[in-house]
Every structure is written in C-alpha cells, then in structure tokens.
C-alpha cells in the first residue's frame, strides 16, 4: 500500500507528515466502535469561535445502519461513488449558520467545522485509519436524505476506513493513488507582513 509522507521544507510532526487522503479502502475491515468514538471526540475538542462548536456530523456506519450508509453514498458524485463504496464509514460534516448563544450569523462556522474535520482526520491517522474528505457530493440530496434543518450548510462527506492496496480501485484511480503528493512552495501561499511578499 502506498505510503506518501509529505516532503517538507522543515521537519513537522510525523502525524501531520503521514496524513493523506487515499481512495483505496478495505471493504472487509470495519472501524471499531471505540476508534470511531475517538475520531468524534477529537472533532469535539477542536477550537471554535466563542466555543460555539458549530459543527454537526452525521455518522453512517455500514455495519450498524446500512440504510443510512447507502443514503450517504447516494449523495456522492458518480466518480466518488466508484471508490467510496469500499469505505465502511461515511460521515457528513455540517456547519450551522448561526451562533447558539445569540442566534446571530456565525461567519466562523465553516472555518470551525473544517478545524473539527481536520482534528478527526489526524486522530484517524494516529489510529492507523484513513480519511478522505469529499466536496463532490450533492448538498440538496444530503438535506433531504438526512432531514437537515434550513439553518445549516452541508460541508463535506468523509470516507473513513482502513487503507487497502490499489487493486481494489478501478483503473482510472490507480495512477492518482500512486502519484506523489505535491504542494505549492511555501512563499507562494504564505506571506510576510503583506499580500504577495513570500515568506523566506
């Protein structure tokens, strides 16, 4: 199975360096209840504006509730369904539009929900699990499938499970699974003191 540690300019924590988003999941290996709860605890303890915790996660574990898992799978784009069908757990992340304490719009909700999702992903890496977050899903279908309230925004669908060899993937995905991970140079995205002045 490919392991693709990040090639970094300076040393970063092994957990962050080794986290990546495979598409090859083992369809025969379930995620244990305690491990799944650990992922959710990691998300629960993410930082948020006013400690509002604007995230909501709908957990669809195929081994526990296959009908819910099938509904989650059906919201995905056709291309994502081709590989996500092997993930034993699908999780829908949702950001609430308004603060709990005063009902006012929360402009940090999406940011905070992303932070919770990353915490979940890093905990998964620590446990030997993999997470692949997908924007390629139909938010309207998700609203209907899971009876979401109006004052929220479906953000991403997360495939969770154990990594498998690339042989479980259709040929159209194998090259991407083998490809090296890349990022823009540090000074192209991180600026020193003003816009466009790259960090040295």
Structure description:
The chain has helices spanning 14-18, 33-44, 66-75, 78-84, 109-126, 139-146, 171-178, 186-189; strands at 55-61, 89-96, 130-134, 152-161. It is globular and about 50 Å long. The chain has eight helices and four strands, in the order ααβααβαβαβαα. By secondary structure, it is α+β, with helices and mostly antiparallel strands.
Helical percentage? 25-40%
Structural class: alpha+beta
What is the radius of gyration?
Answer: 18 Å
Q: pLDDT below 50 for ≥5 consecutive residues: which ranges?
A: none
The ordered H/E elements are: HHEHHEHEHEHH
Write down the overall mean pLDDT.
97
**How many distinct beta strands?**
4
Briefly, what is this?
This protein is an alpha+beta fold and 200 residues long. The chain has helices at residues 14-18, 33-44, 66-75, 78-84, 109-126, 139-146, 171-178, 186-189, and strands at 55-61, 89-96, 130-134, 152-161.
Task: Jot down its keywords.
200 residues, alpha+beta, 4 strands
Helix/strand layout:
Elements lengths: L13 H5 L14 H12 L10 E7 L4 H10 L2 H7 L4 E8 L12 H18 L3 E5 L4 H8 L5 E10 L9 H8 L7 H4 L11
Antiparallel strand pairs: 1-2, 2-4, 3-4
Helix pairs in contact: 2-5, 3-6
């Amino acid at each position: 199975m490919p392991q693709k540690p990040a090639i970094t300019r300076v040393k970063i924590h092994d957990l962050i360096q080794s986290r990546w988003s495979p598409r090859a999941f083992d369809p025969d290996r379930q995620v244990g209840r305690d491990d799944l709860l650990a992922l959710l605890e990691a998300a629960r303890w993410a930082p948020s504006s006013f400690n509002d915790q604007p995230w909501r996660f709908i957990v669809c574990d195929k081994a526990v509730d296959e009908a819910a898992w099938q509904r989650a799978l059906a919201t995905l784009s056709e291309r994502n369904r081709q590989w996500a069908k092997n993930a034993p757990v699908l999780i829908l992340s949702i950001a609430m539009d308004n603060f709990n304490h005063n009902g006012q719009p929360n402009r940090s909700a999406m940011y905070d929900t992303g932070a919770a999702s990353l915490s979940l992903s890093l905990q998964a890496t620590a446990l030997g699990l993999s997470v692949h977050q997908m924007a390629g899903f139909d938010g309207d279908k998700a609203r209907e499938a899971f009876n979401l309230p109006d004052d929220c925004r479906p953000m991403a669908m997360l495939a969770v499970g154990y990594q498998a060899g690339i042989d479980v993937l259709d040929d159209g995905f194998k090259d991407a699974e083998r490809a090296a991970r890349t990022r823009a140079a540090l000074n192209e995205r991180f600026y020193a003191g003003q816009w466009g002045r790259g960090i040295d």
